[in-house]
Amino acid sequence: MKKYLIIANWKMTPNSSKEATELLSATASAAKKIRNVKVVVCPPFVYLRLFSKNSKVGLGGQDVFWEEAGSYTGEISAKMLKSVGVQYVIIGHSERRRLGETNEMINRKIKQAFKYGLKVIFCVGEFERDESENYLQFVKEEVIKGLEQISAKLFKNLIVAYEPIWAISSAKKFGKGFFHPDTPENAFQMSTYIKRVIVSAFSKNAGSVPILYGGSVDAKNAADFLVKGNVDGLLVGRTSWNAKEFGELLKNVNKI
Ligand code: 13P
């Protein structure tokens, strides 16, 4: 049976270790009942140790630095992540790109994460979907530059998350609440496009790299993205911060 990968990106929430423990245990018990989903939680670094004993969900970091160790104030290494049981790491999230992260920095981070056997959730996505379709070239460039000079043999640990920036709940673009998702039909087109870019730029065997969709995913639209959008999983922000809503999302996916 196909197992969808559902990644909970907690971003910079919750505010305390107590709340993180509660959210984790509620998330893990919701995940335990779902047969067709692998859930991975990516909490802020300071909460990673709370997860060490929880095997119901996978554990991911939200970023990693490209150097091994040394004088890099505020950074976290791939080796450190491994040492606390982390298996996955998000790299190149648009909220980090907005703070100045470039394709070249992302490429170095991906190389370092692969070196330590971490599974990389590599985020790409355009600012806007313009009519002349420049966004296709933009996403293509992000994909190619992010993966430059990386052996396609390492792509067994690669997951690409297509997150159109305008669709992320933090974008508040349309001024009407948080959620303004893409459509499953567009997610389908973009995931097919990204797969094609990877195959033609890197390796004809890279067609099996899983592609996720992220951006205003909630309990109502999750199953549609997976079925009509034909993606391999979802990268979920805001909805994953509330165990009840995230549990509803998982239940709906379980009905597929
Ligand atoms: P939202 O689900 O809050 O739109 O966030 C998407 C995201 O950025 C996940 O990485």
* Total number of strands: 8
Which CATH class is shown? Answer: Alpha Beta
Note the main sheet: 8 strands, parallel, barrel
Fourth-level CATH superfamily: Aldolase class I
Rg estimate, integer Å: 17 Å
Helix count, per DSSP? 8
Bound ligands, each once: 1,3-dihydroxyacetonephosphate
- Specify the CATH architecture: Alpha-Beta Barrel
Shape: globular
Secondary-structure element pattern, one letter each? EHEEHEHHEHEHEHEH
Number of domains: 1
Portion of residues in beta strands equals: 15-25%
Strand order of the largest sheet: 1-2-3-4-5-6-7-8
* Low-confidence spans: none
- The termini sit apart by 11 Å
Helix content class = 25-40%
Structural class: alpha/beta
Fill in the CATH topology.
TIM Barrel
Mean pLDDT: 94
Write a brief structural summary:
The chain is of the alpha/beta class. 35% of the residues lie in helices and 15% in strands.
Write the SSE topology.
Blueprint: E1 4-9, H1 17-32, E2 37-42, E3 58-61, H2 78-83, E4 88-91, H3 94-97, H4 103-115, E5 119-124, H5 134-147, E6 158-162, H6 184-201, E7 211-214, H7 222-227, E8 233-236, H8 243-254
The structure holds 1,3-dihydroxyacetonephosphate.
1,3-dihydroxyacetonephosphate binds next to strand 8.
